[in-house]
Specification:
Elements lengths: L3 H10 L6 E5 L5 H8 L5 E4 L2 H10 L5 E4 L8 H4 L5 E5 L2 H13 L4 E7 L12 H10 L8 E8 L7 H22 L8 E3 L6 H6 L4 E4 L1 H4 L3
Parallel strand pairs: 1-2, 1-8, 2-3, 3-4, 4-5, 5-6, 6-7
Helix pairs in contact: 6-7
Bound molecules: pyridoxal-5'-phosphate.
Pyridoxal-5'-phosphate (PLP) binds next to β8 and α9.
C-alpha cells in the first residue's frame, strides 16, 4: 500500500512550481501530519477550529495552517494569532470580524472570498452577483487586518467533468474580472483556491493556484 510520503511525492511530481499543495489533514492524526511534514510539506488545511488548535499546538511552528472550512465569526479569535490563510470567507460580517481580530493581534490575515458556483443549494459562499456587489461597495478597503488575496470555490459534487470544468471556469472568469476591476494594482490578489482529490487536474487547467487535497494524501487507497 502506498504511504503518505508516496502519495505526496506522486502528486507533487505532476505539479508546476506555481501551484501550492494544501494538504488537507482534517480528521487525520498528528502522526499522519508529521509523516507528511517529514517529506517537506509545510502547508496544511483544516476545517474545524478546535481540532486545528490542538494540532497547531502539537506540531512544528513552521507549518502554514490554512483554514478551509466554514468559519463562524465568533470563532475567528481562536485562530487569528497564527492562521496563514482563511479560504472560505462567505459573508461581509466574517471579513469584518477577521479584520477586528487581526487588529487585536497585530496581524494582516490573508483571506479568500468563497464563491458559490456549484449546483448544490447547501454550499456556502457568495453568488457571483453578491461578490461583485460586495467588492464594488469598497467597504473592504477600510480593513487593514483582513486582506482579500483571491477567490475560493468548490465544484458541484458530480462525475460530470463538463459541469466541474464549467464551475471552475466561472470562478476563474470572476477572479480575472475582479483583478481587472478592483485589484489591478494589488500584487497580492493572486490566489485561486479550487480543486480537491477528485478534480484537481481540471482545477489547474482552469487557473487554480492552490489545490486542497485530503483523501488522495491521507487515505491510503
Ligand atoms: C475536505 C475538504 C477538502 C479535501 O477533500 P478531498 O476530497 O479529501 O481531497 C478540500 N476542500 C475543502 C473545503 C474540504 O472541506
Amino acid at each position: 500500500m502506498p504511504t503518505i510520503a508516496d502519495n505526496i511525492g506522486n502528486i507533487r511530481s505532476e505539479l508546476a512550481d506555481s501551484v501550492t499543495l494544501v494538504a488537507v489533514s482534517k480528521y487525520h492524526t498528528i502522526g499522519a501530519i508529521r509523516e507528511a511534514y517529514d517529506t517537506g510539506q509545510r502547508v496544511f488545511g483544516e476545517s474545524r477550529v478546535q481540532e486545528l488548535r490542538e494540532k497547531a499546538e502539537a506540531l512544528p511552528a513552521d507549518i502554514a495552517w490554512h483554514f478551509i472550512g466554514h468559519l463562524q465569526p465568533n470563532k475567528v479569535k481562536y485562530i487569528a494569532p497564527f492562521i496563514a490563510m482563511i479560504h472560505a470567507v462567505d459573508t461581509p460580517k466574517l471579513l469584518a470580524e477577521i479584520d477586528k481580530q487581526g487588529a487585536k493581534c497585530g496581524r494582516r490575515i490573508p483571506c479568500l472570498l468563497q464563491l458559490h458556483v456549484a449546483a448544490e443549494e447547501t454550499k456556502f459562499g457568495f453568488s457571483i452577483e453578491e461578490c461583485h456587489e460586495f467588492l464594488k461597495s469598497e467597504t473592504w478597503k477600510a480593513f487593514k487586518h483582513a486582506q482579500i488575496v483571491g477567490i475560493m470555490c468548490m465544484a458541484t459534487n458530480t462525475d460530470d467533468e463538463n459541469r466541474i470544468r464549467a464551475d471552475f471556469h466561472k470562478a476563474n472568469t470572476f477572479f480575472k474580472d475582479a483583478k481587472t476591476s478592483f485589484f489591478a494594482s494589488d500584487e497580492d490578489f493572486k490566489v485561486c483556491s479550487w480543486g480537491m482529490s477528485d478534480d484537481y487536474p481540471i482545477a489547474i487547467e482552469e487557473g487554480s493556484t492552490h489545490i486542497r487535497i485530503g483523501s488522495k494524501i491521507f487515505s491510503h487507497s
